[in-house]
Amino acid sequence: MKTAYPFQPKSTASMHAGQYWPIKLNSGKYACGVVISLIQNEAGKKDSRSFLAGLLDWEGNAIPTPNAISNAKILKKGFAHIKTISESQAEIIGFVEPLWGYPEIMEETDEITTWGYNVINIVANKLLGTKVD
Questions:
Q1: Which residues contact 63 (CB under 8 A, 6 or more apart)?
Q2: CB distance 21 to 98 below 8 Å
Q3: Is 57 exposed, middle or buried (0-12, 13-18, 19+ CB in 10 A)?
Q4: Beta bridge partners of 50
Q5: Which residue intervals of the chain are DSSP H helices?
Q6: Residue 99 carries which DSSP code?
Q7: Which tens digits make up the pLDDT trace of 74-88?
Q8: What is the mean pLDDT of residues 34-55?
Q9: What is the average per-residue pLDDT within 55-64?
Q10: Helix, strand, or coil here: 52?
Q11: Contact between 93 and 21 (Cβ < 8 Å)
Q12: Burial 83-121 (b: 16+ CB within 10 A, else e)
């Protein structure tokens, strides 16, 4: 089944590794968040609310496009709740082939931090959004 973009995820059922959303920076530019992997819970089922999110090493004057972010590396990553997207008034707007070396579904690990809803926005502004044209 083909995914219609943009969409606001209500659960991880419609989410896949490689989907991305724009992050509006304080500078007026954009950063990009991505779904790196979905999470398998202790019962062996896909977690319906959590996923591994990534902040790409990319910023631009317009919202991200597959061509613009296709070779971007992951700058930071963390386990996140789907509200990470909705709380920042964003939507998943597209898909880019994931080239980051993570499985489509993975188990949670203590080696990766868990982010609050706004952490990716704070980190994006700290690392990418400091320059204003």
A1: 22, 30, 93
A2: no
A3: middle
A4: 81
A5: 66-69, 83-86, 119-127
A6: -
A7: 999 999 999 999 988
A8: 92
A9: 96
A10: strand
A11: yes
A12: ebbeebebebbbbbebebebeebbeeeeeeeebeeebbb
Report whether 42 contacts 74 (CB < 8 A): no
Average per-residue pLDDT in the chain?
Answer: 92
Residue 76 backbone phi and psi in degrees, to 5: -145, 155
Bridge partners of residue 33, in order along the sequence: 21, 55
HSE-CB at 18 with a 13 A cutoff on CA atoms is 14
Please name the residues in contact with 123: beta carbons below 8 A apart, sequence gap of 6 or more.
55, 76
Q: Where are the alpha helices (DSSP H) in 14-118?
A: 66-69, 83-86
Report how far residue 22's alpha carbon sits from residue 34's, in angstroms, rounded to the nearest whole number: 9
Place of tokens 């964003």: 90
Instruction: Tell me, rounded to whole angstroms, the distance of Cα 65 from its chain centroid.
Output: 14
Contact 19, 95 (CB under 8 A): yes
Percent above pLDDT 70 for the chain: 96
66-75 confidence digits (pLDDT tens): 999 999 999 9
